[in-house]
Design goal:
The structure is a homotetramer. By secondary structure, chain A is of the alpha/beta class. In chain A, strands 1, 2, 3, 4, 5, 6, 7, 8 and 9 form a 9-stranded mixed beta sheet that branches. In chain A, strand 1 (about 25-35) and strand 2 form a beta hairpin. The first copy, chain A, is built from 14 helices and 9 strands. Chains in contact: A-B, A-C, A-D, B-C, B-D, C-D.
C-alpha cells in the first residue's frame, strides 16, 4: 500500500523505514549499537533518486535513539552527550579559529517548540570575550555566538531573513540550527536526536518556518540538530488505523468488499478523513506526553552539553560551568 | 455495540450522549441555546440507575459550550462570564456572610493541568481582610480564601487530606474546586466548562487524585468547575477507529468474517490494543492544541471573573481590579 | 557642590534638574499638567553646550510621570496610553506605508530588565501578513516587525550588530527601541516613561549595551522608549547622604572641620567610598520594589497599547485583540 | 551609639555582632573555619537575657557563610552541601521512621521570596509511596512530605493555619521551614544560610507572615532554614550613613554642634528620615543583585540537596535523581 508523504515526519530514518525494499535507491542506512540501550543510525541520501523517494535533501542524517533521554538518568546522559558530541564533531568540519553561530529555532512560549531557545540559553557563548582574552581563548575555546530569533508570528519577519542579516554581520564559518521536530511514531517522542549536514528544510518542524537555512542561503555549512517532541495527532491516528486494519485484512482473508474499499483508499484520503474528525483543530492538534516541560529541559541540557564539548574541545565541563 | 467505560471522559454530557436511548433511566438532559454560539446543557443524574448507567455521582452537571472560549474574543468572553456566574450562583446556595474556600487542583508545572492554580491566582481573596474592614466587606464582598495545594507527586500528601486539614481550620460554608478535565471529543478541548454540585470524583482529571472532595468528606457543599483541556490519545484513536469501522461495516453488509471479529471485540480489548501501539507512553500521552498556554490563560480568566462576580455580587469589575 | 556624572540616571529630566540655573544653556524644559496626577515634561537639548552640560545627545526627550502607572488602575492607564500614543505620534514622523521595526532591548531572565522583550511580545506585528491581505492592511494597519535580540552576554553579539543586520534585510523607515532604564530618585521607579528621538545612547540602561542604535548607525530615525525600573544602590545611598549632610551642614553653620572635609570631597570620591561599602556587589546591586514582576507587566501593557494605537491608527483596541 | 531594633535583620549572627561586648550575656558565639572560604558560626541564645538583648527566640542558630554559594562553582557547592547536611542532622533529632514535613514559605511570583517554594520543588518526597514499597523505603528513605502554601495575600489564610491544618492530618515528627530572609549587610546577600531549632518567628522574612511555626504551635520540633536574599533599602542607607558619619565625627573631634545633633538622634529617628526619602516605596524597597533569579536557583539546589541527604541518609545522590 503506497503511503502519501502528507504524513508528517521530520526524521529521515522514519522516511527510510517507510520505503519498500526496492525503493531505496540512493539511500544508505547504517546502524551502530552502543551499550545501554543507545542506538545510532546513519542515513545517507546520496543522489536525486534518494531525494525524490524521501522528500529530504541530499546529505547525512545521524539519529541517536535512547529511551533514557527523557528520563532523569544522569549517568546515561553523560554517555549520550559523549556520543552526540563525537557525531557533531564529525559533521562539523571546522578549524580552531572558526566562528560558529548557534541558532535556536522555535517559540519560547510553546513548550514542545521551545527546545531551540532552551539549548541556546545553555550554550557557552564566547564571541564577545574573544577579543578581550585572546591568548586564553585561542587555546581553549572557539568563538561562539547564539541567537533565538523567535517565530514569524511574533516577529513579522521570516526567521531566515533574521539569520541571514545576522550572519552577514558576524560572518560565521558554520551555523548550527536547533529545532523541535515532529515524529511519526509516539515511541520516538523525546527519545531521538537527529543531526544532519543538510541545513533546515522549509516547512519542517512543529511551527511553520518557510525559508531554508542551508549552505545555499547562508553560504556556509549548516548543521541541523532536532528532537521530535510531538506527533501530529492525525498522523498518529492514521498509522494506528493502518496497523489495525492490516491485521484485520489478513484475518478476513482478503476476500471481502472491505478489502476493496481499503485498497482503493490512498494515504491522503485517509489523512483528510481523520482531520475532519479532529476538527476544529486539524493540523494544530499534537500528541505530547504530560511531563513535556521537564523532558524538554533534560533534552536541551543534553544537546547544549554536547555542543559545548564539540565546540570547545580544550575545556572541561567544570570550566564551562565557570564561564556560564 | 457496547462501549466500555474505560474510555476516558469527565463530562457527564459526553457520558449521557454515549448511552442508547433506552438506557437513559435516571438521567435528565435539558438544553438552552444562547445567542452567539453559546450552548448550555444541564444533565441531572437523579437516582441509582442513572448513577450506574453513567458511572457519575448523583447531582446536577451544567455544561457551557462555546468555540469562543479558546479565542481572543473579549466581547464574547463577557457574555460567557455573565452566563457562567449566573449558573454558579444557582448551584452555590450561600448566604451573604458565608465563607468560601476555592481550591485549584492540578499541577502548575504541566500546562494543561495548570487551570486550577491559574484560576486561584486570579480569584479575589478577602478572608484575611474581612476582620479589618468589616462594615465595608459585609456589604460588598464575601469572605473568600483560595489555595492551590499541588499534586500528590509533589507534596507526598493526598490533596484531599490537605484540603480537609485546611477546611477544619477555616470552616468554610462551601468549597469550589477547579480542575482540568479530560474530554472524549477533540472538538470539546478548551471550549467547554462543566460545573457540578457533586464534588470532585475520585480518579478524575488529567492527573490522578484519588480522594474525593465532596459533602461526604468535607461536610459542606462542594461545587466542581472543570474544563477539558486534553483528550487521552488512546481514547481519540479508539473513537476515530469506531467511527471509521462503523462506516466500513455498514458498507460491507455485515456478512464478513471481519464483522464477527469486530463484534467480538469489547471496548476494553480495543483500548488495550491501542495502548500497546502508543507504548511506551500509554496513559500518559495526551492530545492537546499547540497554543495551549495562551488558551489556558484565557479560560482561567473567564472562570476567575465568573467566580469573582458570583462570590462578590455587590462589587464591580473595576473594584475587583483595585482590590487585586 | 559640583556633582560628578558618575551618578547613574538615564532620564534627561533628572539630568536637567541637577544642573544649576546658570548651567542650562542649550537646554529647554517645558511642563504640561494633565488631570489625575499625570505630568508631562519636554526637555530639548538644542546645541553642543546643552549636550556637554547633560552628557545626553541633542534631541527631544518627553517624560510622562504618574504614580498610577505602577498601580492596577485600568481607567488611569487608558488615559496614560492616550497621552503616550499622542506623544509617540508626534516624534514618529512616518507615512501610512512606512515599515516600522520595534526592538525590545534587555534580558528576559532578569525581571527589571525584561521590559523591552515584554513590550515586544504584546506589539501587534503585521509585516508578515502585509503582502497577503494588502487592501485590508493598507487602510487600517502599518507594516510592523518586532524583535527581542537578547543581551550580549547571552548572544555573544553586540545588540547593535544584530539590529543592523536585521534592518539591512527588512529596511524599516523607523526603529522604536524599548529599554529598561536606571533612575536617580526612588520615587521615579516604574512611574516614569521617557520617549526620545535621539536613539539609544551607548552605556545606558540596566545592562551594558555599547553600540548606539541611532540615525547615525541605522540610517533611519530611532525613537527610544524607556522606563526606569531600578535605582543603582550606590546612587541612592549617595543622594540620601547628600540630602542629609546638606541639612547638617546648614545647621552646623559652616564653621567646622567637617565642612572643610565635605567641601573637599567630590561626587566621585563619595561614589567610590559607597561602592566599597556595597562590596562585593558594587555596580551590580540595584534597588527595586518587591512587586516588580507585576509592575513590569502593567508597564509593558501600557507601552504596547500606546505603540499599537500610534502605529495602527485605523484600527480599534478590539480589532487589535482579534489580530493578536 | 545605641542602635534601634527597627533595623531589619533576620540573622542572629548579625544581631549578636551589633551588641556591645558587655551586652552579650545569655549569648554564646562559636566559629569554625573550613577550607575554601566556607565559615560556620553557631550562636546560642541560652536565657531570657539573651532573648531580650537580641529580640530572637532561645535556641541554636547555625550560620554558614561562603561567597561561593552565589557563584556557579559546582565543586564548592558539594562541600557546602556536605557541611550543611551535617549541621541539619545535628539539629534534627529524628528516628528512622519519623515523618518529616518540609514547608516552603514565601511567594513563587516574587523572585527573592521564592526560595522556599523552589527548595520544596526539589525535595525528594516519599510519604505517598511509603506504604506501597515499605521494606525498600524502611531501609533507605524517610517518609517526607512537602508543601508550599503560598502567602496570605494570595490565599486569604494565615500560613500558620494552613500548616497546622495539614500537620494535624499527617502528624509529622518534625517540620522544616524554608524561608527567604532579610540581612543587614549587602555582603551577606545570597552568601549565607542560617539554620535554627527555634522555628520561624513572627514578622520575619521578606514578606509578612505573622503566625509562628514552632514547637509551641505545632507540637513538634521546627527547624528553620533561611537565606538572606535582600537587604531592606532603608537599612542599607542607614548603615552606610553610620559608617561615614562615625568617621567624620572622629575627625571633627567631637566638638561641634553636629556632634550634638547626631548624638541626639536615635536609630528610629534616622530610619524614619530615610524612609521618607525612599517614599513612596518605604518598606517595600529592597536591594538585590541583578542576577537574583539564577542565584536563587543555585541556593535552592544547595539546600534541597542538603535536605535530601540529611533526610534520606541511606540513599545516594544518583538514587535521588532516579526517584525525582
Amino acid at each position: 500500500m503506497k503511503k502519501g508523504f502528507s504524513l508528517r515526519t521530520d526524521l529521515a530514518l522514519e522516511t527510510a523505514e517507510c520505503l519498500a525494499e526496492g525503493a531505496r535507491g540512493g539511500i544508505e542506512v547504517e546502524n551502530e549499537d552502543f551499550d545501554d540501550n543507545i542506538k545510532v543510525s546513519t542515513v545517507k541520501i546520496t543522489d536525486k533518486q534518494g531525494k525524490a523517494q524521501t522528500g529530504k535533501a541530499m546529505g547525512t542524517y545521524i539519529t541517536l535513539e535512547s529511551p533514557y533521554m527523557k528520563e532523569n538518568e544522569v549517568a546515561k546522559h553523560e554517555e549520550i552527550i559523549r556520543i552526540l558530541s563525537g557525531k557533531l564533531s564529525e559533521l562539523l568540519k571546522i578549524d580552531r579559529d572558526s566562528v560558529i553561530l548557534v541558532v535556536g529555532l522555535g517559540n519560547w512560549n510553546v513548550t514542545p517548540d521551545a527546545l531551540g531557545p532552551k539549548v541556546v540559553s545553555r550554550v557557552l557563548v564566547t564571541r564577545h570575550i574573544a577579543s578581550e582574552v585572546p591568548e586564553d581563548i585561542d587555546e581553549n575555546v572557539r568563538s561562539v555566538a547564539a541567537v533565538s530569533p523567535g517565530v514569524m508570528g511574533i516577529t513579522g519577519i521570516e526567521t531566515g531573513e533574521i539569520i541571514m542579516g545576522i550572519a552577514e554581520k558576524i560572518k560565521p564559518d558554520a551555523v548550527i540550527a536547533i529545532d523541535a521536530l515532529a515524529a511519526r511514531k509516539a515511541s520516538r517522542i523525546n527519545s531521538t536526536i537527529q543531526i544532519a549536514d543538510t541545513g533546515v528544510c522549509p516547512g519542517s518542524g512543529v511551527g511553520n518556518r518557510r525559508m531554508e537555512l542551508s549552505r545555499k542561503t547562508l553560504g556556509v555549512p549548516v548543521i541541523a540538530v532536532g528532537v521530535p517532541t510531538v506527533v501530529d495527532a492525525a498522523t498518529l491516528v492514521s498509522d494506528t488505523l493502518d496497523t489495525i486494519l492490516e491485521e484485520l485484512i489478513e484475518q478476513s482473508t482478503k476476500s471481502t468488499a472491505l478489502y476493496q474499499l481499503l485498497a482503493g483508499m490512498t494515504g491522503d484520503d485517509k489523512y483528510d478523513l481523520i482531520c475532519s474528525i479532529l476538527n476544529p483543530y486539524e493540523n494544530n492538534l499534537f500528541v505530547t506526553p504530560k511531563e513535556v516541560d521537564a523532558v524538554i529541559d533534560r533534552l536541551s541540557g543534553i544537546i547544549a552539553n554536547a555542543l559545548n564539548i564539540a565546540l570547545h574541545p580544550g575545556i572541561s565541563k567544570e570550566d564551562i560551568n565557570k564561564y556560564m
